[in-house]
Write a structure and sequence with these properties.
12-stranded mixed beta sheet, alpha+beta, 18 strands, Aminopeptidase, single chain
């Protein structure tokens, strides 16, 4: 694949450096609104916080909602100890085995952000029985250096203050990068790239571009947007589990740098019994588009994966749905890894697929 455009790298980097815990996505949305304004694209935000752009098109064609989520997982403060140590509850699927000694950022409303670190017991004082134990979130503490509850509270930190992993981006070799909340700020950048191309299009279906909220908190925002927009087709942009490392090799054939991916089956199965089996007409659309564009299209079928498309597909009389995505390593850790070339190819796939939606695309299941 060709090197990714510098604009895409800049967008992914900027987005990964913005904190935006579920329910607190305002900084991410503000950055996106500014970029959309520079493109002379009108947008609006609904009550939940979803950022929406609508490009009107041919009313005889099925309307499409293309969406991705702005929020990230993390923690909420639940208690400040007298010594200034901070206790938290996790928000979303935090990988607890990856928490200890991680740098974090606390984001108190109306105050500057406060850096901190998740404490870890000194190795020299850790008995053998504890060395391989993984603490749960309620057991950890965050040290901000303040030294007292009064000093922490003077910094604006209270019960309910959002906490995220310290936003960082590390450029890696071969157009790859490691970043905080690549899931799904990379998707946000892809959707912005799609918008840049679509703003000058002529013809085609009505397309709703949605940057949604609270995906990591039980898949909330996109459902609200879909209830209002009532699309005929929904295309979700999110990560695909890369399976090209030894620990993931038996899970599939999704390779970093191997191009965009398409999910043929997802099912969570852990507490949330939901998932997506894509509409066959959309599977064919993506396969034919990728072939026409001369690009690879990887396939995924996974248990343990869930996106808000799971609920969007049931809105109204049912929405023809498909999950598209980019391969990503180390999901839900403090630094996730993606390949910018996959993101670029994914944006081009979506634009091309939207351009192939015509009166011959039949969504009826008896077609």
């Amino acid at each position: 694949m060709s090197p990714a455009p510098s604009t895409l790298r800049e967008d992914v980097t900027a987005l990964c450096l913005l904190p935006g815990l579920s329910g607190h996505e305002e900084r991410v949305a503000a950055w996106l609104r500014e970029r959309l304004g520079a493109l002379h694209m009108a947008s609006h935000t609904d009550r939940l916080g979803n950022l929406i752009v609508t490009l009107e098109g041919d009313p005889t064609l099925p309307s499409v909602m293309v969406f991705t989520h702005m929020d990230q997982l993390g923690f909420f403060v639940r208690k400040v100890e007298p010594d200034g140590m901070i206790r938290v509850e996790r928000m979303g699927g935090v990988a607890e085995k990856a928490m200890l000694a991680q740098a974090v950022l606390l984001c108190p409303a109306g105050h500057p952000d406060v850096p901190g670190v998740i404490t870890v017991k000194s190795h020299h004082a850790t008995p053998p029985g504890e060395k391989y134990a993984v603490p749960t979130t309620p057991e950890i503490r965050i040290d901000t250096g303040h030294g007292s509850k009064a000093a922490v509270e003077a910094a604006g930190i209270r019960i309910g203050t959002p906490v995220v992993y310290l936003p960082r981006v590390l450029p890696l070799a071969n157009d790859r990068l490691a970043g905080t909340a690549v899931d799904d700020r990379a998707g946000c950048a892809v959707l912005l790239d799609v918008t840049r191309v679509l703003k000058d299009r002529r013809g085609g279906p009505t397309v709703h571009l949605v940057w949604s909220v609270q995906e990591e908190f039980n898949l909330r925002g996109a459902v609200v947007a879909a209830q209002v927009l009532q699309p005929d087709i929904a295309i979700q942009i999110d990560l695909m589990l890369a399976t090209d490392t030894p620990d993931m090799a038996d899970r599939g054939e999704m390779a970093l740098g191997g191009g965009p991916g398409m999910s043929l089956y997802s099912f969570h199965g852990r507490g949330t019994l939901n998932g997506v089996i894509p509409h066959p007409a959309l599977v064919r659309l993506m396969e034919r588009t990728a072939e026409a564009e001369g690009m690879p299209l990887q396939r995924s079928a996974q248990v343990g994966v869930l996106t808000d498309l799971s609920y969007v597909q049931t809105v109204g009389g049912g929405v023809a749905s498909i999950d598209l995505g980019f391969p990503m390593r180390h999901s839900h850790s403090a630094l996730e890894v993606c390949d910018l070339r996959d993101l670029d190819a994914l944006a081009r796939l979506i634009v091309a697929a939207l351009g192939r939606i015509d009166p011959d695309l039949r969504l009826e299941r008896d077609a």
